[in-house]
Amino acid sequence: VLDKLDAATLAAVLESKPYRCFPVVDDGRLAGVVMRTEMESAVKEKREPCLLSVTTVRPSQTIRQCQALLIESPAGLVVITDVANEGRPLGVVTLHDLLRAQAAISERE
Fold first, then answer.
1. Strand partners, 77
2. pLDDT (tens digit, 9 = 90+) per residue, 29-60?
3. What is the mean pLDDT of the chain?
4. How far apart, in Å, are the Cα atoms of 32 and each of 89, 93, 97, 101?
5. Cys staple from 42: which of 49, 58, 63, 103, with CB 3.0 to 4.6 Å?
6. What are the φ/ψ torsions at residue 91 (nearest 5 degrees)?
7. Cα separation of 21 and 8, whole Å?
8. Least confident range of 3-7, 8-12, 32-36, 75-79
9. Rounded to an integer, what distance in angstroms lies between the CA atom of residue 12 and that of residue 86?
C-alpha cells in the first residue's frame, strides 16, 4: 500500500517490489490503485501517477463472493477494507489468489 506518490517513493517501490499494482491511501483511506506501468511513466515524465478506481470488499465476504468483482476489476484485484476505520485497506485479493483457492478446492474434492 502506498501513502506517498512522490518520485523517490515510486522509484524505491519499483526497485524493491515486483507487484503489478498497488493500492493507494490518502489520509488513511483508500484512494485508488496505481499500476506499475503508470508508476514507471510517472517517474520518467516527472509527474504524479494517475489512479484507477478500485473495487472493495469486506472481510466477511467469501472468495466466491469476490469472484465476479475480481474478474470485472480493471486492475485484477479487489481491496479488503475495514468498515470500522472508514475504508482503511486490510489486504488485497488478486486473480492469482482466486485461482489458487479454486485449485485447492479441486484438490480436496
1. 94
2. 889 999 999 999 999 999 999 999 888 999 88
3. 89
4. 11, 15, 20, 25
5. 49
6. 180, 180
7. 17
8. 75-79
9. 28
pTM for the predicted model, two decimal places: 0.81
The three-state (H, E, C) secondary structure of the chain, written as one string: CECCCCHHHHHHHHHHCCCCEEEEEECCEEEEEEEHHHHHHHHHHCCCCCCECCEEECCCCCHHHHHHHHHHCCCCEEEEEECCCCCEEEEEEEHHHHHHHHHHHHHHC
**77-82 and 55-57 strand pairing:** parallel
Phi, psi values for residue 103, rounded to 5°: -65, -40
